Amino acid sequence: MEVTVGLIGLGNVGQGTLQILTENAKSITEKLGFPLTVKAVCSRTVESKKIACPSSVIRTVNWREVVAHPGIDIVVEAIGGTATARSIIEGALGQRKSVVTANKELMALRGAELWSLANANGVNIAMEASVAGGIPIHTVLREGIAGDKVVELYGILNGTSNFILTEIEKSKAAFDSVLAEAQQLGYAEADPSADVDGLDARSKLAILAALAFGEDLKPSDIYTEGIRRVMPVDFQYAHQLKHTIRLLCLARQTEDGLVLSVRPSLIPRDAILANVTGAYNAIWIRGLYGEDTFYYGRGAGSKPTGVAVVSDLMRVAREIRFGSPDRVSPFAHERLGAYKPLPIPTQKLPYYLRFRVEDKAGIIATLATILAKHNIGIDAVLQLPREDWRDLPFVVTTEPAREQAIRDALIEIRSADFLIEPPFAMPMQRGF
After folding, report:
1. Considering only the top CATH level, what class is 3-132+302-330?
2. Which residues pair with 395 in a beta bridge?
3. Global pTM?
4. According to the model, what pLDDT value does residue 344 have?
5. 41 phi, psi to nearest 5 deg
6. Which residues are catalytic?
7. How confident is the model at residue 187 (pLDDT cuts 50, 70, 90)?
């Protein structure tokens, strides 16, 4: 007996999913022991799209027809966003249909509520494709290393930002120029804010932290900075320090609580994450018992993400076909705790401070005095040769210091008459 699928949304993820379900149908049937059949597809532009599926498949512009159809077992939500997507998922769960989604924004905001609704209706909700599309990281945390206790998680979770940073590093081109290239190549949207300002990575980290630590964490709980201020000269200085720069997602369990952040950070060049380049994603997990494991692959794209969606469909289809009274929560924990992470200013790390100044006498002395006033020790001062004394970038690295002290010192430094822009600070991550 077949299990049937209704697919809502025919963008990149939806079309990739449909292609795999159609072209790989024989292999999927062999693995399941029964067919996984597309019954209906829905898109506002469904009539104008070339869809490679049988003419018997229902085509509609109304998602409610898919959700309400009695012959559909599983609904795939592939439209993204949080408003209509939430209505689709809630409607499907209310009709006692399981749901597969790639929607990281909605699952980061409402995932725990939607799982409760699924559980109450005796159906499932699966979301492997919501984070790092080509990497089965949910399955790893939910099942593969479920017996361990995660203490640290580091991730490069946004392929667009990683592409931009590694292109700046390679070509020494400015951010705006590389962003334009990323948009031409299709890596970045016309409005790139979600990617370059860290918001996309923040939603993904909220989901992974819930899986890893069992806490209902909202994206707004996570301290977030983007990559717009990273310059080619920052990579030059980072290389002098035997580091590179990545938009790093961090979740670390400390004695005082959980630290979460998404921000550009310096990481050692011999760390495995430093070698993650282009539009790839990676996650490094440290367990108390199993120690370090590493996961790498494409983080986006219609086919890698489509593979994750179809794999979820297969898992849910087996449950429907054979029954599974003890479903595993998509968040790996039966219940999520209500928790707020530690304020980021409480963390203590060495910092990279980049200044752009009009060269004058006494600049280093002024900076040293202000940093000392805030109990921040200087580790090194770096200055590359520069002909333009009116725009001289140089770097101060600090000994480990509280971020609050760094912030307070930089606020005081901003009033200095030699600065041509506010100072730029990045943590230098340790423990790799």
Report:
1. alpha beta
2. 354, 382
3. 0.91
4. 83
5. -130, 145
6. 204
7. confident
